[in-house]
């Protein structure tokens, strides 16, 4: 029941949340930046990488997702960001998902105000340019073909194309739409691209996929990007992240693999 309530409440939130990662097909929205908010040691480097691959514009949204009660998200001044100074808070949200509207060009700074978290790297800085680059509505699918030992063509599928592997405001339906444009066959390869330490990939049974629960059921977990999965047998394959909050925001993929 708790899982069902969590999924219902998050699904309601997701309806009004948009997302951006990198330009790609139109079913991946591009105006809200969803970020898993964590205090893992060394997390500052992944946050810097994450920020560098986003395209920020005025009126975009920053959405911080974290377990309730463990973190906060606060917009701060540069002084607050550089020195983890809690007297420099502009605005703060204690409940997840914490949403901030980007209202101006220039630098914006965010930290966690829980004791010690900012100091070990739970902070992110973004830059909104004066004139944001045009965002493409569509892009060609990213895939390549080669041949297996029998001479048959096999395909490498880049999951999410340029969007990559990340939580989506459209939920799992975004990845469903992505998969619907492709035919998967035995011998093909999936490649998941994501920011290390912020995301991972788990191959799971259908029940874990449906419930966003990988605590004890993952068949395999891939923590380094790019993660490559060879489709060795026909049937249904289910992928999620091991972070249940990110899974609830749509970081899920289900595909059917056909025999050759």
TrEMBL record:
<dbReference type="GO" id="GO:0009055">
    <property type="term" value="F:electron transfer activity"/>
</dbReference>
<keyword id="KW-0732">Signal</keyword>
<feature type="domain" description="Phytocyanin">
    <location>
        <begin position="155"/>
        <end position="259"/>
    </location>
</feature>
<feature type="domain" description="Phytocyanin">
    <location>
        <begin position="31"/>
        <end position="130"/>
    </location>
</feature>
<dbReference type="InterPro" id="IPR003245">
    <property type="entry name" value="Phytocyanin_dom"/>
</dbReference>
<dbReference type="Pfam" id="PF02298">
    <property type="entry name" value="Cu_bind_like"/>
</dbReference>
<keyword id="KW-1015">Disulfide bond</keyword>
<dbReference type="InterPro" id="IPR039391">
    <property type="entry name" value="Phytocyanin-like"/>
</dbReference>
<protein>
    <submittedName>
        <fullName>Phytocyanin domain-containing protein</fullName>
    </submittedName>
</protein>
<feature type="signal peptide">
    <location>
        <begin position="1"/>
        <end position="26"/>
    </location>
</feature>
<dbReference type="InterPro" id="IPR008972">
    <property type="entry name" value="Cupredoxin"/>
</dbReference>
<keyword id="KW-0325">Glycoprotein</keyword>
<dbReference type="GO" id="GO:0005886">
    <property type="term" value="C:plasma membrane"/>
</dbReference>
């Amino acid at each position: 029941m708790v899982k069902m309530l969590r999924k219902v409440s998050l699904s309601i939130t997701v309806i009004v949340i948009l997302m951006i990662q990198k330009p790609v097909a139109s079913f991946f929205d591009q105006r809200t930046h969803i970020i898993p908010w964590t205090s893992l040691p060394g997390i500052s480097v992944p946050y810097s990488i994450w920020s560098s691959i986003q395209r920020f514009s005025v009126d975009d949204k920053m959405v911080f997702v974290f377990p309730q009660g463990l973190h906060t998200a606060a917009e701060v001044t540069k002084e607050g960001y550089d020195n983890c100074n809690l007297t420099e808070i502009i605005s703060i949200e204690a409940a997840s998902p914490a949403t901030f509207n980007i209202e101006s060009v220039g630098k914006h700074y965010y930290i966690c105000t829980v004791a010690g978290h900012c100091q070990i790297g739970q902070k992110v800085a973004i830059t909104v340019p004066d004139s944001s680059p045009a965002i493409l509505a569509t892009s060609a699918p990213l895939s390549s073909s080669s041949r297996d030992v029998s001479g048959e063509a096999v395909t490498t599928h880049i999951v999410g194309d340029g969007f990559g592997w990340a939580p989506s405001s459209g939920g799992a339906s975004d990845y469903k739409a992505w998969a619907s444009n492709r035919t998967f066959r035995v011998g093909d390869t999936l490649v998941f691209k994501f920011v290390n330490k912020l995301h991972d990939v788990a191959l799971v049974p259908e029940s874990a996929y449906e419930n966003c629960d990988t605590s004890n059921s993952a068949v395999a977990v891939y923590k380094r990007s790019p993660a490559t999965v060879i489709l060795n047998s026909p049937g249904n394959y289910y992928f999620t992240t091991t972070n249940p909050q990110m899974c609830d925001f749509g970081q899920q993929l289900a595909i059917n693999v056909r025999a050759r």
